[in-house]
Each structure stands twice: as structure tokens, then as C-alpha cells.
Amino acid sequence: MSDVVEKTLTALPSLLSLDSHPGSAKLSSTSKLGNLIRGITELTSKHEEEKLIQHELLAIKEQVSSPNTTMRQMKELMVRSIYCEMLGYEASFSYIHAIKLAQQGTVLEKRVGYLAVSLFLNESHELLLLLVNTVLKDLQSTNLIEVCMALTVVSQMFPKDMIPAILPLVEEKLNHPKEIIRRKAVLALYKFYLIAPNQVQHIHNKFRKALCDKDPGVMTASLHIYLQMIQENPDAYKDLTPSFVTILKQVVGGKLPMDFNYHTVPAPWLQIQLLRILALLGKNDQSTSEVMYEVLDESLRRAEMNHNITYGLKALTYVVQQDPKLALQHQMTIIECLDHPDLIIKRETLELLFRITNAQNVTVIVEKMLEFLCISEDDHTTIDLVGKVAELAEKYAPDNEWFIETMNTVFSLGGDMMQPDIPNSFLKLLSEGFDSVEEDRKLKLFAVNSYVPLLRGEPGKLPQRFLQVISWVLGEYSHLREDLEPAEVLSLLAKLLDMKNSSSETKSWVLMAMTKLCKGGTDASVTQEVSETYSSSLDTVLRQRAHELQYLSQDPELRARVLPRGANPETLEVDSSLSFLDRFVSEALAAGAAPYKPPHQRQEELDQSKALSLEPYGLSLPISMSSCSITDRQSPTLLSMSSGLSGDSADLSHKGGSSALKLDGVKRVWGREGYLAQREPVEEAAQVEVPSPIQSPGRQGEGDSLHSQTPTQTPTPEPEQEKQQLASSLFVGLASQSSVSLMGKSEPTPQRFRRKAKGQGPGSSFNASEQISSSLISPPSAVDNLLCNNLLDSNNASELAEQTSQLSQRLTTANGTCHTEAELTEPDTKGCNPALRRDNCVVAADPGPHDDPGRLTEVCLDSYLPAELSGLSHSEIAPLCANQSLNLSACHVQKEDSLILVVFIINSSESAIQQMLLQVDSEELEVSCLCDSPAGEMTSHSVAVGQYSLTVKRPAVHVEVVGTVSYQLPAGTSQSLQFSYKVPLTSFIRPFVVSTEEYGTMWLSFSHDTKQNLTLINDNQEPLTATLNALKKKLQLHVVEVIGMEGIVACRLLQDLPCLMHCRVNAGWLAVWLRSPVPDLPDCLIYHCQRALQSL
Amino acid sequence: MQFMLLFSRQGKLRLQKWYVPLSDKERKKISRDLVQTILARKPKMCSFLEWRDLKIVYKRYASLYFCCAVEDQDNELITLEIIHRYVELLDKYFGSVCELDIIFNFEKAYFILDEFLLGGEAQETSKKNVLKAIEQADLLQEVHSVLLQFSAL
Q1: Which among A28, A187, A272 is the nearest to B118, CB-wise?
Q2: Where does the AP-4 complex subunit epsilon-1 C-terminal domain lie (chain A) (predicted)?
Q3: Model confidence over A648-671: pLDDT tens digits?
Q4: Any idea which architecture B1-150 has in CATH?
């Protein structure tokens, strides 16, 4: 029999069983697959199944490799292989045949072939490369279905490196007459964007075309791309906001064909996609948000409760950040959601409430949150919610009692899972206090009062973190309560030490507290006992604490010096260079001691000594460290303790587990006054002046009555009324009384726990702007007030400054900040892409009531650059601030040996101003005036230019210059205008040309260092060279030498302050080790290296 | 969406579609864990669960469980509606679909899914358009078979 006839005959059975119904459901039950499936269902044990499938796979394997198998049979075989794989048995032998089937089969065989490929392989599978040609061919096919199949598989998986091969063909399909092809092409490009964004950058315009496609399917598909791109860079797509709004309007208005409806809701998937996009575009952008209000309101109104609660809530959550009044219109819906049995909806509702919290509704909202916390079992939710409660409590607490009570609940519920910065900032708040000394004392006293009964009760049930907070507070403030004998506190604390579940971290906090409390005399017995128990502890930290306790309790004079009670935290100066130890060190070195090495260096050398390679610079040091650090650490005299220098003390406090509690600005633990390392770092800020203690009545019962005062607790017979009352207590303070009847009183309540302002000098623009704006808003509307309340608490200084500047511009006062992190623009490229450069400027995005200084004058300002600077590269000229009469802009110019700040003052008014004076200063920088600072009179529409040379005093990631312009109006009133200007540290970095030998010598002499792993750039060339070149280009570093997998790099800040960098490729990372004689410089530099590599 | 699984009450996988690259081993582990977790849940329980760093949305239709994994920022409710729309599509195509239809014609179920979701995102939410695309391909199949039959005889 000939081959042909045989093939036909084998094909016949399946042909004859064909059915004309498209969903030919039962027919294939007679096929081989059907037999297999039935065979499996008849089996009784897993073992039998295994046998059957192995048998089946063998049969398939034999058939697929037979040269006589037709493509049609192959298709059937592939379906069976897919089925076996789905059951969990490997059929990898069939992968290659699936590709072959996609390649050689007819259309429908191809279809199965492609399906099998997409199920068998994932996008990193090497066999996928074999599919590229097939895809290429099918994309060019005249058969629509083949094109569709190729696009479908490409949208699911495609080898990244092969994208360029098919990209033009896919791009071309965007103009295809059939909408299904256009739609699939858009999704394929979306996939490309996800795996290789750079490859599709040039077709962004075509995406816009897809967005405007007349077919809703194509338009919907393009939204996936937009959502992704907007997530990455919302600013670049603000101009599309009206388009998205229009589309949403049409969708909500039912303009789409009926079959897009889903159970009477018009295209819900499309709606959600649009809402998510709008949420991203409107975030932190008032003017863009305003465009959306109407349509959002409409969407929300049309959304049916049961279908769409959650997404309505989510959108609303974003909106209220901009305009809390909108939430008012939906308050009853929100109340319904709050009682919803579904926990997810409840949680979303709380998220929304969190956003609208203010000083008046805080008690109710926090109560709702705590209620939820009690029933929540999910760790993630608990951590998140605990953080929010703590944030709200700190921001809006109506009184001390409430604050402490709430924080107690937070600590008990949050347990040890909560973010470590919560106890941190709580203690910081307590220790720094507020402006009123009396309030301070009351708060501390109340905390003490509430903790004592907790310890008397069952402290074993409290989380460790809470116990640590309690011991610190008692140690620090229990003396405020006069009726409380230190002896009693001591015995309470001693009880904690005996508890089985106390961690050693907690124990060291307790010992610390006891050290502060012990006075000798009657307390001596407890102290003595404890210190004896722990002075032989295996835990070195505990042992050390025990020794401290022992010695300090016997020497009140020393204790008063080491742990002063009335010291002012701000007078504490930390000598981070430890210069007072120089003599000690040099003596020790002269006596033959080994030089100090930080622990990680020791570790590294230890590692290296096992391997062959040593330090790249030849000079390696012996590892005999033990003599110096370990013994000293246990020595009883405090001052010689851990004189193993800087790294040691930091290391110790880390082991004590208190690293999480480090305060900003505390860098080292040695002070001029002596050794501070063994105290918890927080105490440094805690030495607040305390007046003589005054007794206060116990207040434990008051917390209960406090909660019952909230309207929710008031018994009302009617449930509806109850809800309304809840509504009024929740939404109070959101709008002026006239707008909504449910509203309660809305008088502005001042912020309670505002942090005490520090450093009033010109160096702190943060505080300056805070003070100015708070004085400006004294007669505010409710909305403004809310805005300010929110803003003043913002921990994010830059956000605050930005918003404040908006606010103050609106109020025609002057005050501004500008961050110019933009890279320097070369003179020749300047102006080629103004839209993009504008986006980098924070202030310019805000159209003020006056002429935008940047937009109108930027081009002209270029010409005001001093002639000697005009040829050099300078940053974009960024507007700083403006008022009725003056516009301020600035830029910085990089010279080889210096950095020049140029400030432009434009008199935009119609009249001249008098006695203008410009002053510029900085905390981190040395500012020197280059030529005479502009001063005196300025005629109308003139420009004055000030030039300042900047050098770095103290490195920081971003350094800031603050300044004031004071002047007199013709009327004689004097005015001033404040501004700040941020310069990235990178502007100061210059290449440092040294030889390898010089580098080696310097390396050993530099004491400040840091280590980090950076990502390697993996393009086609060698990764180390590629990464170093990128860093060199971005940050102007000097690559000294590259040897094999290691490279050494050097740079400096202008002419001094060098920093050396040693890079080594290690396990796919670039292990970087930086050293410098300047503290903080290595850390700042590593930050910029990370950023530079990320931005590639 | 990260992946979609269809499995029976006995825990047998009926369909699996992965939109993120995972090794075979990981896929097996994930589906095993998830099937166990979901089958252990009571009928009245919530259709959503947080699992590892993903949100799992599932729904039971007769003897078959449909289960999707989405990222944290995705909306669970709309994912539930995606499942439902897929069931509607299957129902329309097979004519009151049952588990057996999907077992015996799972490749069809995959084709429908590929027209509805592509690369983990909703591709076409109009029921009419999805089915039209499938029927066109099917029609071609029939024309082709008739031709084949013809030439065979």
C-alpha cells in the first residue's frame, strides 16, 4: 500500500466523526484523547494512573518521532501531550514537535501547535528561538487567522532578544484594516513594553493613535500600555487627561455598543482601567484632578452598590486626597460599607476614612480602625493599620490621655510585628516634647501613670516592643510622679527580667532603665541582685549593661555625669571623628597594637584569607584584632570600654537590638562628655529640662469615659439616626457648614503634637516655611485649614515645601523651594526639548496667579548669565518663588574647580524697589559671594544677578542653599521673600586622577567607609567595564585601573574631600567598597551610584 | 493577572494558563498548594484570599473551580467578573457547558481564553467579538475538513 493511502486511512476515523456544530462537544469522546480520559476516570489508584500515563507517553513518543506521522496526527498527539502535562507528567520530548507543528501544519494544525507551544514553554525557554521564523512568516501571511495566531503567541511569550526581528511587522499591524489584528498588535506591543521598554519607545505616537481608534476593543487594549507608562511617569501624560475623561464619560453615558455591557454595567473593565489611570494622573495634582471631578462623581453615582463598591471606594480614596468635600456627597454609602460583612470592603472603607481624618473626627475614625484591628487576623493588614492609627494619633490627638491610651492599644495590638519606627517616633515625640513645658510634663506623667498598672498586672502578655517602650519611659520619667518610689519601679522592672519570654533586647532596655533609676541606699539590694545575676550572662550586651548598673549605682557622681537628667538635648555635641581618642590610639599603636579595622573589613579579610586573592593593592594587614576590642569591651572602667574606636561602639548598640531606634542626626555614640554608647540612642534627645515633679491624680479610669463621649456610642433607638450621627462625626470638618447639613461644627483645631521647631537659623527652610504658612492661615476656610493640617505633619519635607509654596503663592506671599535634580544641560542641547525639562521642576507645574516666572522668562534669563559662565554647562534655570513684585530663579554652573550658584532676581512689578538685599546661606555648604551681591535699588522689569561659589562643608545626599531677599516697596513697607535651592551632591563630584600606588596608600589612611552591592549593567559588553563606564559618565568618576573582575575608582568633591571606591564583581552584583576621610561622603556617594544605575 | 487555574472538586487540574514565566516545578507547587487551600474553604467563605504576595480570586461553578491570581494593586471584584464572563463565553460556545465539555475539548477552552485574555490582560470584553473570532477559526477548520474528506474519497 502506498504511503498516501495509508495516511488517508489513518486519518479517516477522526474525519468521519466530525460534527457540524461549532461547539462539537461530545464528539471527540470517541477519539484517542477520549479513550485516554475515560481510561483515567476508570482507574482507582494514583499508581495505576501513573502506569497508564507512562504507557500513553511512550506511545506518543514513538509516534511523534516516526517519519510517517502526518501533521494531522501530530495535532492529535499534541493535544494528548498537553493533557498528560496538565495531569502533572512531563512530556518534554513533544516540545520540539509542537514547534514543528506550528511551523509546518495547515492553519488549524498550526493553531494547536501554537497553543501547545504557549502551554509548554515559558519565555525563557531556549526552544522558543526556533519559533521566531514561523512567527515572522505568519505575520506576513495573507491569511488573517494565521496573523492572529502569530500575534496571540507573541503577546504571551517571545524571546526578548528577538523582538527587533518582528517589531516592524507588528508595528505595521497597528494600521491593519481589521480591528482584531490592530487589537492584538497593541497587546503584543504592550508585552514588548513590559519586557523591553526601550525597544518600543519610538512608537509612542502610534499608541496615541490606538487610543483614538474607532474600535472600542483596540482603544481598551491601548489602555494597558498607558496604565503601565503612567505608573512609571505620570507627568509625561498629563496632557491626555481630558481624553481619558472623555472616554470615561462616553462609557459611563452608555455610548458603547450594547454587547460591551456586562449585566447592565457598561464595560466595567474599561471603566476600572480608566479610573486607575485617572487616579495616577490626578495624584498630587489639583488642576488635573479638577478636570476629573465631574466624571468621577458621575461614575460613582451610576455604579451600583453591589457590583462596584470597592472600586468606587478606591477611586474616591484617591480623589479625597485632593478634595475631601467630594467624600461628603457619598457619606451614607461609606457608612453602609463600614458595616459591610465583607472584611475586604471594610478595610477599603477604613483606608478612605484614613484619608479624610482631621482633628475633629479622629477619635471616631481611630476607634473604627481599632475595632477592625481586633477582628483582623491578617498580619499584613494589622501592620498597615497599626501604622495608620499611630500616624493619626500623633497628628490629631485631641488630648494627652487619648493619645497615650491610643498608643497603648497600638502597642498591645500591633505587637512585635509593627514597623519599628512607631515606637521610635513615639519616644522621640515624648522626649522632644512640644512648645509648652507644662503640657510636656503632663503627657509624660500620664504615660508613666498608665504604664505602672500595666506592669502591676500581667506584663507577660504585653509584646516585647511595648515592654521596651514602657521601660524606657519609666526609666526616664517615673520621677515625675512623686508618690511613686523608685524602689517600686525598680522591683516592677526587675520582675520583667525574670519573665521567661522577655527577649534579651527587652532585658537590656530594662537594665538601662534601672541604671537610670537606681540611687543606691534602699534600692541597692534589688540593683545588686540584678547586676550580679547578669554580670555573668552569656549575652555580652546584657553583661555590659549589668556592669554599668553596678558601677553607676555605686558612684552617683559618675552617674550624674553620664546620665544627666536635666541636660538639653540640643547642646549635646557629638565628636564623630573621636579626635579625643587620638592620643590613646597613637600610644596603643606605638606599643605595637594593630590598627583598627571595621568589622566588615575584618570579615572580608577573613574570607579572603581562605581564598587566594588578597587586597588589590598589595598592602594587606594582619588580623590580630582581638587584643584590642574584645577584652576592652568587658573592662569595667567606662571610659576605656570598647576603645576599639568608632565602628565598635556602633556595632555594640546594634547587637543590643536598638539599631532600629536610632535618631536622625545621631551619628556616633561618643560624646564630648564621655562615653554614651551604652545608653539607648534615643536618650540623647531625651535630656529635656524637667521642672520639679508635681503630683497628678491617677487617670486610669478616664479613658473609658473618653470613648463614650463620641457620638457613635450614644444610644439612639433608630438605626438610621445612628448612621447619620456616625456620619456627622466622621465627616466633620471636611467642608464649610453650608454645604452639607450633616456636618457638625467645623472650627479649625490647632495641631496638638506639632514637633518642636529646631534650628531657627536660616539653614532650616523647612521650619521657616512651616511657620510662615501657619501664620498665614489663621483666618482660613475649612478646606484650607484641612490642607494645612495635613501638610504641616507631612514628614516629607520636600512635599511640604512644595505644597507650602503653592499655598503661599495663592496667598500672595512669597516662599518657595526648588529641587533641581535635573541633569545639567549642555548649552548646545538647551531648548531642544523644553517640555521634558520643565517636568523636572516642581514649582513650575503650579500656575500661580501671577505670570509664571519660569515659563515666560526662562529663555531670556539665559542671556543674563554672567559672560564668564555662559560657555559652561549649567542646570536649567528653575523658578524659585515669586510674589507681586519679584520673581526669583536660579541655576548652578559647573566649573572644573568650583560650583557657581547664580540667582536671578526679576523685578516684575511696575515700580522700582528699594534697599534690596540678597542673602544666601547653607548648612552643608560654604557659600562665598563671588562679586558684589546685588543690592540697592531695582528699576521696574530689571534683572539682578547674584553669583555664589559653593563648596561642600558636610556631605549630604542633597545639599540645600537657603536665602532671603529683603526689599522695600515704594510705599515704604518692607517685604521679604524666602527661597531654598537644592543641589544634588553629584554636581560637586569631579574626577580624581591618581596612580594605583597613590590610591593604595590613601586607601589605608581613610577611615570612613561603607559597603554595598550595586546592580551590574548587563548589556553585551563586559559588565564591570559597562557599569564603571556608566558611573564614570553619570557621576564624573575617575577609573584608576581595572584588573580582571575588580576595578578601582576615585573622585573628589571639587578640589578636596576625596573618596575612593573599590568595585568587585561578585555573584552577579557589583560589590562596592567606598572609603573617604570625610564622614558621610561614602554613604552619599553610594546613594548617587545607585540612582545613576537605576536611571539607566 | 498572573495565572488562571480550573480544577475539579477532586482537585484534578482541568486547565492552566500561566502569564508569568515560572519553572515547571514552581507551577506544580503553586497549583498543588492553591488547590488544597481552596478546596479546604467552606462554601460561604469569601471568594478572595491573600496568598503569598498575590490575591487569589476564585469561584465555584457546579463541580468546577475557576481560580485567578492577580497582583496586589489589581481589583478583586473585577477579576471575579472576568471569571464569570469566561464562564459565560464557555456556556455560549458549548451550549450549557458542563465539566465534561471542558475535559474533552480543553483545547477549545484554551482558544476561547486566548481570545478573551491575552498575556494576562483582558483583550476583548465584548462577548460577541470573542465568539466571532473563535467561530471564524472553527469555520475554517470545517471547510478544511470537508475538503480533506473530499480529496480522500
Answers
A1: A187
A2: 990-1094
A3: 333 333 433 333 333 344 444 444
A4: 2-Layer Sandwich (3.30)
